[in-house]
């Protein structure tokens, strides 16, 4: 797989995903575990790429050195950001760190705070005006809170026309806007959520190849439901379904389908609730049809809104599920991936929901944010190691070249920021409970809770 050159060369590994176990307002959906959350946010991250063939060098960052008089620049995360020095790339990063420290007369320190304490320390520092670090990794929902209250610098306030992030973005790339502006940044990467499928079941049942459907422009909601119905079977004629069309956490798929239909359940840019958006309603109608009407979903726990259902696909008897690379580490399934099917109002620019991603921010209270960012960007100005961002990571997760191509060319960087969880008491999970467990119609459920949803967003406020 090393011979492929799908995207431009980069210096760093994969984009942090966002992908943490979700909290909830309902009984079933509050099952998220802190340990799982920490695993998800770090599983797609590494401080350095693995050793691979070095290719063309990146363009140098043009920056005049500034003597900062021995100042300490602190970088924080809930894992160790410091390069380990055990690979060629991490050694190069350590050498670059030393060169940057000398150039600017600074000391770079890495603050590693356990996940359970991290958000508290970050928030306390933000409120006090004394940030825990000059540059911090934060979850997007926490960044939204800080952005809405004016406690974060915008990218436009600390980057320049010469910054790599505003040009080739080989070293850094902008993350999607929050609160209507750009605040977050990260190293380039190619990861993301998609609709995964069990190749063995597709072969056993003679189901149409999903990647072929996608490439032919036929992969939409109707075809998705059609395949799910075809895959739900009693294969041994004992009167019990033993093959299922889909398995997974209903709330998770609901978000992805809404995004793939161009809908935001909570629009952080406008401050308006999106539960009553017809595009969201259409996504929830499909969820209801899958779980309650056509009954093509395996519900292992007996609870249709149970968070732990996201792992039910590992039983090996479900054809499709919502997935990301980090979920597949302990399974031997031969799986493939395609983007989530687009809804009638969807576009290929947004194919999945990013509700718990994370990235770097520079909080207000940090002195000389422009110089701090300049130093941070230069830390990663080393010869490129991979032929494209996340190459080694993806090749370690996928068995088939066509799956890697699908991620790189059609899934990566197509996430829609979806931050309903950032708003305390936002009733998304309650609506899901009403629809799936209480058999309330979708329109009645969203109408019942729309004022509650808007109140939750108004309470957080908009800058």
UniProtKB/TrEMBL annotation:
Residue spans of biased composition, Low complexity class: 39-52
The UniProt record lists the keyword Signal: yes
The protein's name: Extracellular solute-binding protein
PROSITE patterns: PROKAR_LIPOPROTEIN
SUPFAM superfamilies according to UniProt: Periplasmic binding protein-like II
PANTHER family, alphabetized: ARABINOSE-BINDING PROTEIN-RELATED (PTHR43649), DIACETYLCHITOBIOSE BINDING PROTEIN DASA (PTHR43649:SF12)
Secretion signal span: 1-26
Gene3D superfamilies reported for this sequence: Periplasmic binding protein-like II (3.40.190.10)
Region (Disordered): 25-56
Keywords: Signal
Listed Pfam families: SBP_bac_1
Ranges of biased composition (kind: Basic and acidic residues): 26-38
InterPro entries: Bact_solute-bd_prot1 (IPR050490), SBP (IPR006059)
């Amino acid at each position: 797989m090393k011979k492929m050159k799908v995207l431009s060369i980069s210096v760093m590994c994969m984009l942090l995903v966002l992908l943490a176990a979700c909290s909830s307002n309902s009984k079933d959906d509050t099952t998220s575990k802190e340990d799982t959350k920490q695993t998800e946010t770090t599983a797609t991250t590494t401080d350095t790429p693995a050793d691979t063939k070095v290719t063309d060098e990146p363009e140098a960052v043009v920056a005049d050195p500034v003597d900062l008089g021995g100042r300490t620049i602190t970088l924080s995360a809930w894992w160790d950001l410091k390069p380990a020095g055990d690979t060629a790339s991490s050694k190069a990063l350590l050498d670059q760190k030393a060169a940057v420290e000398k150039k600017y007369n600074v000391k770079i320190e890495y603050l590693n705070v356990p996940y359970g304490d991290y958000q508290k320390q970050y928030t306390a520092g933000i409120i006090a005006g004394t940030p825990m670090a000059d540059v911090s990794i934060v979850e997007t929902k926490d960044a939204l809170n800080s952005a809405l209250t004016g406690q974060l610098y915008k990218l436009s306030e600390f980057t320049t026309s010469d910054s790599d992030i505003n040009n080739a973005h080989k070293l850094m790339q902008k993350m999607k806007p929050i609160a209507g502006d750009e605040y977050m940044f990260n190293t380039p990467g190619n990861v993301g959520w998609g609709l995964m499928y069990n190749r063995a079941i597709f072969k056993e049942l003679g189901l149409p190849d999903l990647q072929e459907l996608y490439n032919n422009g036929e992969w939409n909601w109707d075809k998705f439901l059609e395949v799910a119905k075809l895959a739900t079977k009693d294969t041994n004629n004992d009167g019990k379904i033993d093959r299922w069309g889909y398995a997974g956490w209903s709330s998770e798929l609901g978000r992805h389908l809404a995004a793939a239909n161009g809908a935001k359940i909570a629009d952080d840019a406008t401050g308006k609730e999106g539960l009553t958006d017809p595009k969201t309603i259409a996504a929830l109608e499909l969820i209801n049809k899958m779980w309650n009407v056509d009954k093509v979903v395996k519900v292992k726990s007996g609870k249709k809104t149970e968070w732990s259902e996201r792992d039910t696909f590992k039983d090996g008897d479900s054809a499709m599920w919502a997935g990301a690379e980090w979920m597949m580490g302990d399974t031997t399934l031969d799986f493939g991936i395609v983007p989530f099917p687009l809804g009638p109002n969807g576009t290929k620019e947004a194919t999945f929901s990013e509700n718990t991603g994370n990235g770097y921010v520079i909080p207000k209270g940090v002195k000389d944010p422009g110089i701090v960012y300049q130093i941070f960007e230069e830390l990663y100005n080393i010869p490129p190691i991979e032929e494209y961002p996340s190459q080694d990571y993806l090749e370690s997760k996928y068995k088939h070249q066509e799956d890697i191509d699908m991620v790189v060319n059609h899934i990566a960087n197509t996430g829609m920021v979806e931050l309903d969880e950032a708003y305390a008491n936002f009733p998304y999970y309650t609506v899901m409970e009403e629809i799936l467990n209480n058999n309330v119609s979708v329109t009645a459920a969203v109408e019942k809770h729309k004022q509650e949803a808007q109140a939750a967003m108004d309470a957080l406020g908009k800058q």
